Amino acid sequence: MADLLDSYPETNQSATDDAYGNPPKGAGQAITLSIGSSYILDSMKWYLRKIGSPTGSGYAKIYSVTGTPGTNGVPNVLLATSDAFDVSTLTTSFALITFTFSGANRITLTNGENIAMSFEYTGGNGSNLVNIGSDNTSPTHAGNEFYDSGSWNADNTYDECFYLYGVSAALVNQNFSLLGIGS
Asked: Is the pLDDT confidence value at 178 over 90?
């Protein structure tokens, strides 16, 4: 069972960011992990809806950070990409959509690490796109939003609605030991 590592609930949603091409391919949130110990990245949720009839795949991605989360954090080096999600299955009402990380994309996350989490979709156009739920009324997350306009730009007057999940690295290692794997 995965543990919740960080979130900014969808009940805060008051605005949207668009994802459909380059630009804008997406948006996300730069954060500093406060998780106490190491976790293996499991999944995340974005608050999404479709406009028009977008087709193709959307992804959650995890990057290292340039800048400082909470001020000017933006994606740097890609660390992990989720399994593909078929954006045509979205509805026109916002819903929490789960993105699963598998295989080599189940990276280790550590306490104090700065990461940038994004939702990205490049298969649409200005009429067929995905909206990402965000808050520009009273954003209170310690991180900052970023968005694509040809390059990543930080905006600390917005926060994206998300949930980030991981599995305790100590528990995973203990289970491997019990199974005789890696000894």
From this structure: no
